[in-house]
TrEMBL record:
Pfam families: cNMP_binding
Ranges where the Cyclic nucleotide-binding domain occurs: 33-114
Transmembrane segments: none
CDD domains: CAP_ED (cd00038)
Organism: Aquimarina algicola
Protein name: Crp/Fnr family transcriptional regulator
């Protein structure tokens, strides 16, 4: 059976067995339980995570104590605090597990080494970065131009499995609405 990371990478670039072994040697695997953090606000982040199994949330808590979810991370998704990871500054977000999760991570140093030594992986991450920017742009545009109902319907259309795995209050925090507003949309 093909390793899930290899399948993921080969959606963009093909790898020989030797190349994939070389890539995989730059990663470590970890398991985290539901509610465990992989990143806490204020720490310097040195790892980028790829979700093998599970569901995570990236979020920050504002001055009033309200949680704002920036991103969910499910199988085959990458997640970290990218500003902290790239600039080696203190994290502005926290990431914790909504479900028990299995993750692969690569350190900043290993990612830099891997991209310098292997053009295919440099191309892979460049493509993934472009896709991430497109998704972020679409999320911002949706927040600016769509009604709450339209944002809800779009999220349901794009990620129906999320609604089976994530509590409604987290969906509301992602959409930027109250739980009560979300309940009215659900009925």
């Amino acid at each position: 059976m093909t390793h899930p990371l290899r399948q993921h990478i080969e959606e963009i670039v093909s790898l020989t067995d030797e190349e994939f072994d070389f890539v995989l040697n730059h990663f470590e695997q970890i398991k985290k339980r539901k509610h465990q953090y992989i990143i806490q606000e204020g720490e310097i982040v040195n790892k980028e995570y790829w979700v093998i199994k599970g569901c995570l949330k990236s979020y920050f808590v504002d001055n009033t104590g309200k949680e704002h979810i920036l991103q969910f991370g499910m199988e085959n998704w990458w997640i970290t605090d990218y500003e902290s990871f790239v600039k080696q500054t203190r994290s502005k977000t926290s990431i914790d597990c909504i479900e028990d999760s299995e993750l692969l991570y690569i350190s900043f140093e290993n990612r830099e080494k891997l991209t310098a030594q292997m053009h295919k992986m440099e191309h892979f991450w460049a493509k993934k970065s472009k896709f991430g920017r497109i998704a972020l742009q679409n999320r911002i545009l949706s927040l600016l131009q769509n009604s709450t109902k339209e944002r809800y319907d779009l999220l349901l259309e794009q990620y129906p499995q999320l609604f089976q795995r994530v509590p409604k209050k987290m969906i509301a925090a992602y959409l930027g609405v109250s739980r009560e507003t979300l309940s009215r949309l659900d009925s």
